[in-house]
Amino acid sequence: MIAGELQKAGIKLDAEAGARLERFTQLLSEWNATHNLTGAKSLHEIEENLFDSLYPVSFVDPPESLLDVGTGAGFPGLVLAAVWPETETVLCEPLQKRSAFLRLAALEMGLDRVEVVRKRVEDLDHAPFGLISSRAVSDTALLLRLTEHLRDEQTRYLLYKGSRVDEELNRVEGFEAQIRERPPRRYLILSRG
User: Fold this and answer.
1) What is the tens place of the pLDDT at every residue in 91-108?
2) pLDDT of residue 9
3) What is the pTM assigned to this prediction?
4) Nearest residue to 50 (alpha-carbon basis) of 115, 2, 85, 10
5) How far, in Å, CA of 193 to CA of 188, rounded?
6) How many domains does the chain have?
7) What is the CATH classification number for the domain harbouring 93?
């Protein structure tokens, strides 16, 4: 299923990225049976989450560095790292069992430019990132405040949102916004212009 969806979206994965995503799917299925990392229980649900995470690859260029806030079971940060292996990727996930899974998965997928940080994003100390992503973690204005110390004028945001994104944007100032849609998901890209 996912290969056809990716092709329709104009996303081409090389064999290595495909193998990394296959390994991720296997690991997540195994770990999720015991540790309940995500609500995606079936292979179909995992594939839908994979495609949801990958869809922005059709309109966002790979950044030099990526911070994914609240990565959870790997969506979208670890999935993006699988197709952007040259990107320095930091997965910020405060929960122990999820961060342990992310470390193992990154190792098993051969992603040596991925760092898993087990802390809250407001406690992270790092140079500004090229791209900050997050999927349904927080209100947009709050996320911008929490990551203020991790961005500069070139930093862009890729936020995986739902139907309330317009309401959230009313509380955001100083950013240009673009929205791409793949119902029910709305992908919000924020930049300084």
Assistant:
1) 999 999 999 999 999 999
2) 86
3) 0.96
4) 2
5) 14
6) 1
7) 3.40.50.150
